Structures are given as structure tokens and as C-alpha cells.
Amino acid sequence: MNNSSLKYLGVSILLFLASRPQASAQQDFQINLSNLIFYEANMNYEFLSFDGNATLGAFGGYVYGFPGNNEDQQYYYVGPELRFYPFPNRGADGFFLGLYSRYKNGYKTQTITESGYTSGGDRLNENTELKVDYEKLAFGFNLGMKWVTRSNVILSFNTGLGRIAYYDYHTPTFQSSIENLVDPITYEVYTDDNTIDSKYWDFRIGFNIGYRFGTSKIKTTD
Hints:
The chain is mainly beta. Helices cover 7% and strands 56% of the residues. It has one domain (3-213): Porin. It has an eight-stranded antiparallel beta barrel. The longest helix has 16 residues, at 3-18. The termini are far apart.
């Protein structure tokens, strides 16, 4: 983890700790079940404040690659999130809107395909895989619904869209294996990223289950 990663994590932790004195005893832990089918482990944590209308929390996860796909892409991510619940019944439940930031760090593979003809007319082809490390920082909004039962079990879903404000790809130097063996006029090289990867947009989605530690605030009418 480089210095920028440590700085981002440090700021997230400071924001998290700064609001702890104002938080109530209610704390929500959730696991994203839907993303397990995409081989992604994800967890969300919220602690409640502002009389149950808003929460400050953090989320994180790890994408460990698709089996049989040569693990083309693996990465982890962390970030803080602020959520607002306009009409809570049990303290921070129901419809919500949120603002978040997410830091990603991982790698993807690139396939370099070379081709060309030798002086004798033979065609040569060569594929080379490169491991490209990257890091990204995104800011976006999140919305969804959350239900809290009387036994404090949580069910929720959310979807979000963000804009990547910073990205950096560390592509290793490529050394051709056939360029000196073929006629320069016939030499061609093509790059295939192999993975769905965006330099501009950040996406979130989840169907979650969890548990609330602490007593739910049930609003009653007089």
C-alpha cells in the first residue's frame, strides 16, 4: 500500500472516530449477499446519530476473481459513507440517500498480441500477459431501502453511481518477443484488457442482510 492509500485510510478513520461521541448505541453491520455471486466479499457498517435520521459509517470489500477466468482482476476497496433517512420508524430505516467515497486498489491483466511475417513468408503469433496495478478514488451518491425487524435483523438493498476523480495505472514495460524476427512492415501489435474496467465511473449495488446491535428506536404517534 502506497502513501496515498495510507493517507486516504487515515482520513477515513479520523472522520469515523470524530463522530463517535455523538453516536448512539445503535450500530448496524451488514453483509452484501448478492455480490457473492460475483466473487466479491463486502461488508457495511453504520453507527447511528442525529436521532436516527442520519448515519456515518464505512464499507469495504474484496473482489477475488472469477474461477476459470485466470483471475483477470482482483482488487479491494474501502470508503466512508454518510446516509440520510428522511422518514425513519425504527431509527435509520426506510428509504435513504447517501454520499460516499471509495478507494480501490488492485490489478488487472492485459494481453498483448503480436503478429507478423518472416522473410521466408511464415506467420508468427505471440501472446503476452501483463499484470497492471492500479488505484482509483471515486465520489458518488447511493440510495436504497432498509428494513429493521423487532428482533433487530436488517434487510436492505442499495444502488449507487460515482465519478472517478483520480486513477493511476502502473503498466509494466513490454518487451516484444517477435518484433526482431519479422518484417517490420508486417509487424502488428494489439492490446486486449480482458476485463470490464472503467476509468471514469464507479458503480455499487447490493442486497444485504445484517444485524443491529442496540435497541431500535420505534416511533409512536400520540
